[in-house]
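**Paired protein data**
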Amino acid sequence: MIKGIGLDIVDLERISRSLQRGSRLAERVLTPKEKKRFMEMGNPRRKVEFLAGRFAAKEALAKAAGTGIGKLSFQHIEVSSDKGGAPAIRAKGYEDSKLFISITHSKDYAAAQVIIEE
């Protein structure tokens, strides 16, 4: 049974401007494993897409959960990739739920959708 569906879209230019000012957003949004992967990326454009995608994914999960970010923090949610490169998401407190995620990027935006199934 579907418990929740969440969707979020992020402007890549906004993320780019934030990264130009420093790493505060990345520190707040990314878990240590995500940050390691982020720091290993050489292409600045790819770093923007990565951070924007993770931000959108975490916001989408919080919306699907019905809590919003705050009760469920960015650090409670982690997005990884399977062997084929498809995204996977897990969150503290949702270990017994099945989580589905899709992340996409265009020239100007990153978007993510999350479905929580119990």
Summary: Helices lie at 12-21, 24-29, 32-40, 44-65.
